[in-house]
Design goal:
With 235 residues, the chain is an alpha/beta fold. It has helices spanning 17-20, 33-36, 39-42, 45-50, 52-66, 73-84, 99-103, 161-170, 189-195, 222-234, and strands at residues 10-14, 89-93, 108-110, 113-120, 126-128, 147-151, 173-177, 199-204, 216-219. The strands form two sheets. It has a six-stranded parallel β-sheet, sandwiched between helices. Helix 7 links the parallel strand 2 and strand 3.
Length: 235
């Protein structure tokens, strides 16, 4: 689409749908992650206080599982865009997997944290972490046995919101990929971007909850629609 040539600054929001074809369950689909576990049982600070073993077991399994998965053509296309786009670009991901990075993308911001990091609530250090936490290993720095998954739970503040809003303010194109638009504040980015003057595009398997806020929606699997869009925008 020739019109893409007028864009300079792009903000991309990704969600679980971009990793679905890598074999990582989305949250809200039939058989999805939250269907098998109640959100309140595993993804809230209260759950961690109430039953830390349950929460650790859930995240230990997820941390192991994502390391078995591979990036798919949607991640690869976004990495290519990152490599070749000379304007500003920020890939804001709600995903806690590392598939954007493993595909080669560098301008990635994990607003909901990362499975492959542990956060010490005693000394506040975030450490790379690939193994389990259920046995309460010591923090590599302060030795306290107070590590938790470095993921943002419901009721907690997403990370780096200032940077995200700064990028949205200067964006002339906002693209949402593979997210249901059910969880704020990410679900509100399209409205913010649009009100700030950006063109808004949705790439998703089905219309998201905020679909009416997008100037354009392209429906289909991310592994197909994302590479086509990237090719257009780079043309
Ligand atoms: N290609 C594109 N989109 C897909 C694909 C696919 N192959 N498969 C599923 N989708 C779409 C679904 O139609 C749905 O709209 O991806 C979206 C996934 O939505 P959710 O499961 O709600 O995931 P997400 O939007 O990332 O969730 C947001 O909620 O539970 C919290 O913190 C968690 O970051 C997560 C946040």
């Amino acid at each position: 689409m020739a019109a893409m040539g007028k864009y300079r600054n792009i903000v991309i929001l990704t969600g679980a749908g971009v990793s679905a074809e890598s074999g990582i369950d989305t949250f809200r689909s039939a058989g999805g992650l939250w269907e098998n576990h109640r959100v309140e049982d595993v993804a809230t600070p209260q759950a961690f206080v109430r039953d830390p073993d349950l929460v650790h077991r859930f995240y230990d399994m997820r941390r192991a599982a994502i390391q078995e998965k591979l990036p798919n053509p949607a991640h690869a296309a976004l990495a290519e865009l990152d490599a070749r786009w000379t304007g500003d670009l920020l890939i804001v991901t709600q995903n806690v997997d590392d598939l954007h990075e493993r595909a080669g993308a560098r301008r990635v911001l994990h607003m909901h944290g990362e499975h492959l990091k542990a956060w010490c609530t005693s000394c506040d250090l975030r450490s790379p972490w690939r193994t389990t936490l259920i046995e309460r290993p010591p923090c590599p720095v302060c030795q306290a046995r107070t590590l938790r998954p470095d993921v943002v739970w419901f009721g907690e503040m997403p990370y780096r919101m200032g940077e995200i809003y700064a990028a949205l303010r200067s964006a002339d194109l906002f693209v949402s990929i593979g997210t249901s638009g059910a969880v704020y504040p990410a679900a509100g980015f399209v409205r913010d971007a649009r009100e700030l003057g950006a063109r808004t595009l949705e790439l998703n398997l089905e219309r998201s909850q905020g679909s009416r806020w997008f100037h354009e929606s392209r429906l289909g699997p991310a592994s197909e629609v994302v590479p086509v869009w990237v090719e257009e925008v780079l043309a």
